[in-house]
């Protein structure tokens, strides 16, 4: 393959102080490209997706373990490898990849995230993009898909078990429903959402969509083997848990004895699940307003911050 021309500077969205995205996020036309370490690849970004952690970092919730400012936000990426470090074995220049570029979401994330023309990531965090998915679809997956999977693994979820998903139409919830039903073989999947999103839950594989605007899940007579909380209702979750069942949550501070965890990113999870996307058993769920063009990243954050998005918000194409 012919050598790819890589510039020394690029366009990126960055913030130099903490605050609301509409006030601090700026379009920067001359940002130095990140250094590529021995175990990393440099990616020409085609698409990125937004996660709540992005705007919470921007608002200063995690200053003590944040990346130094100015920083470009963004965890999820899909794009093309344009440079490889000396120790990289899995990828070569020209490979099409996707992944969450930060090893741990809250521990010193990268200064140059995925809302930039180029970003660097360790090869172990990345996977080859499923052939049947667009860049935008692939970019929507990594952080939320891996979070959904790890939470199910931590509960010991397996075929024949029942699960209630709190927040079934969100980024993580849409994956939990699909994984539980189509990968693990759940006996029953129940999930909560607002009225207009119930049909989506059914389409994802939920046997029992629950309209949280009309009924409280904690009043249900049925009990579940697992409750997966994506919205911060951990204490109530125990009211519908079978004896010996488990509650898992991704919303701090949690509620003992629920399993609270923060994702440790692993590209091997994506590689393992790729065949399910290529066969159509699993599907990416993009918010109806997606994709937002790169120039409208501030508008994309505004939509994310309403907490009303369905699935994932994607920025595509990135120049």
Folded structure, characterized:
It is a single chain. By secondary structure, the protein is α/β, with parallel strands linked by helices. The chain folds into 2 domains: about 10-130 and about 285-315, Medium-chain alcohol dehydrogenases, catalytic domain (Quinone Oxidoreductase, Chain A, domain 1, Alpha-Beta Complex); about 145-260, NAD(P)-binding Rossmann-like Domain (Rossmann fold, 3-Layer(aba) Sandwich). The chain is built from 9 helices and 14 strands. It has helices at about 20-25, 50-60, 135-140, 140-155, 170-185, 200-205, 235, 265-280, 295-305; strands at about 10-15, 25-30, 40-50, 75-85, 95-100, 120, 125-130, 160-165, 190-195, 210, 225-230, 240-250, 260, 315. Helix 7 links the parallel strand 11 (about 225-230) and strand 12 (about 240-250). The protein is globular. Keywords: NAD, Oxidoreductase.
- In CATH, the topology of the largest domain is named Quinone Oxidoreductase, Chain A, domain 1
CATH level 1 name of the largest domain: Alpha Beta
Give Rg in angstroms: 19 Å
What count of structural domains?
2
Characterize the overall form: globular
In this structure, how is the largest beta sheet organized? Answer: 6 strands, antiparallel
CATH superfamily of the largest domain: Medium-chain alcohol dehydrogenases, catalytic domain
Compute the average pLDDT: 96
Q: How much β-strand is present in the residues? A: 25-35%
Count of DSSP-assigned helices: 9
H/E series: EHEEHEEEEHHEHEHEEHEEHHE
Task: Tell me the number of strands.
Answer: 14
Q: Which consecutive residue ranges, at least 5 long each, have pLDDT under 50?
A: none
Range of helix content: 10-25%
Q: Examine the secondary-structure arrangement and name the CATH architecture of the largest domain.
A: Alpha-Beta Complex
Keywords: NAD, Oxidoreductase
Family: Belongs to the zinc-containing alcohol dehydrogenase family. Quinone oxidoreductase subfamily.
Protein name: Enoyl reductase (ER) domain-containing protein
InterPro entries: ADH-like_N, AOR-like, ER, GroES-like_sf, NAD(P)-bd_dom_sf, Quin_OxRdtase/zeta-crystal_CS
């Amino acid at each position: 393959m012919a050598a790819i021309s890589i510039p020394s500077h690029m366009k990126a969205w960055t913030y130099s102080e903490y605050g609301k995205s509409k006030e601090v996020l700026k379009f920067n036309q001359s940002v130095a490209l990140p250094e590529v370490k021995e175990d990393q690849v440099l990616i020409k970004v085609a698409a990125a997706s937004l996660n709540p952690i992005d705007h919470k970092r921007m608002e200063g919730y995690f200053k003590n373990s944040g990346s130094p400012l100015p920083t470009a936000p963004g965890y999820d990426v899909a794009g093309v490898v344009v440079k490889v470090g000396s120790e990289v074995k899995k990828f070569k220049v020209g490979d099409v990849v996707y992944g969450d570029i930060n090893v741990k979401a809250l521990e010193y994330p990268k200064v140059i995230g995925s809302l930039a023309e180029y970003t660097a990531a360790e090869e172990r965090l990345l996977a080859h993009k499923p052939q049947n998915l667009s860049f935008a679809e692939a970019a929507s997956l990594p952080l939320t898909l891996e979070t959904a999977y790890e939470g199910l693994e931590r509960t010991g979820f397996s075929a024949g078990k029942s699960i209630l998903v709190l927040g079934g139409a969100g980024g993580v919830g849409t994956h939990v429903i699909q994984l539980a039903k189509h990968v693990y073989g759940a006996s029953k999947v129940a999930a909560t959402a607002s009225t207009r999103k119930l049909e989506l839950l059914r389409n994802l594989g939920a046997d029992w969509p629950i309209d949280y605007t009309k009924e409280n899940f904690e009043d249900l007579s049925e009990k579940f083997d697992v409750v997966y909380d994506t919205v911060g209702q951990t204490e109530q979750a125990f009211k519908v848990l079978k004896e010996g069942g488990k509650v898992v949550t991704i919303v701090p501070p949690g509620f003992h004895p629920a399993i609270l965890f923060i994702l440790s990113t692993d590209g091997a999870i994506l590689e393992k699940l790729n065949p399910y996307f290529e066969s159509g058993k699993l599907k990416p769920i993009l918010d109806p307003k997606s994709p937002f063009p790169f120039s409208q990243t501030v508008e994309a954050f505004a939509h994310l911050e309403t907490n009303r998005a369905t699935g994932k918000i994607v920025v595509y194409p990135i120049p």
